[in-house]
Amino acid sequence: MRFYTKLLRFFLRDLYSRNEAARNEIRTVSDQLHQKNQELENQISELKNQNRELMLKLMQSQNYFQDIIENSNAGHDERAERSEKRLDCLEHYRAETEKRMQSDDVTTLGLSHRTELIESALRECHIYENPLQLFNKKTYSQAGEDAIILYACAMLGIPLEQCSYLDLGANKPVEMSNTYFFYEQGARGVLLEANPLLIPDLKNQRSGDVILNQAVSAVSGETVIFHILNLDGLSKIGDVSDILRKNPAAKLEKSIEIKTISYNTIIENYFDNHAPVILNLDIEGLEMQILRSMNLKDYRPLFIIIEMIPYSDKLTAGSKNQELLAYLTEKNYIEYAFTGINSVFIDKIQYEKCIA
After folding, report:
1. In 3-state terms, what secondary structure has residue 162?
2. pTM of the full predicted structure?
């Protein structure tokens, strides 16, 4: 029995040693890839600078020969003809240089994309960990709302993987999402989306989250009519005539019946009676109704992201929903940031505990 135990220990040590060697080799390959990519980017940058200098010289030469042609007279026909030929050659070389510069841009984008794919694969294998860069980060939100909360969490000492979220009106899984960044960091939550056409993508790309195809309302279990429009993010419960009038490109595709669920029910059923760190509220004009139905005494998110401007197909400035602002202020929330579209509110009670 001791012999087999020793033999098993030997094989386990050997297996561990080989696994560690393989991980080291992959790390080395990853470092070499990064180094090579950086060298290529430096070479491309240098080549672009050289091309720009050459373009400037070519333009100067072109102007010089153009002057010669314009100032030439009958006695200089032969010389002017040679200048024109030279000018044609320079113009051809200039066009070729521009093509080369465009090719360099495509090469740079290709290298960047391949590097992202390699890093993603290595992270999935838990081999390469890219430390989060607080001031050099990727944002998926419409106006950087996720970056604002990232900074606040970093300053308050809240680990990003603990930033649970409830996204009411999730829409797409990645683009324009205020919660996908935190999903990438390991956090998980609940995504509620009433449009059934968007559910397959949410389940495919956010498989770690709970996906609910329901409409948020003050009362759970009711049946309401949900209007699906052809433009992203405009589908809603209730009257859509104002949207159709203001935006000629918007079309009503169909209206369906859908079940409702309340904020309080979601917290009780999916968050074990604890509010998420982040609540994202984007439900096309019903925000005030939902806020009034929420139990903000017992279920207080640390952050609330909420749309604060009326719908418009043009840039909206100098307009903010004062009713929402007054209500959340009354509920002891501080408007931490306004992006021109959404406001990020922070719970004053939890905030003061964190900074204490």
Report:
1. helix
2. 0.61
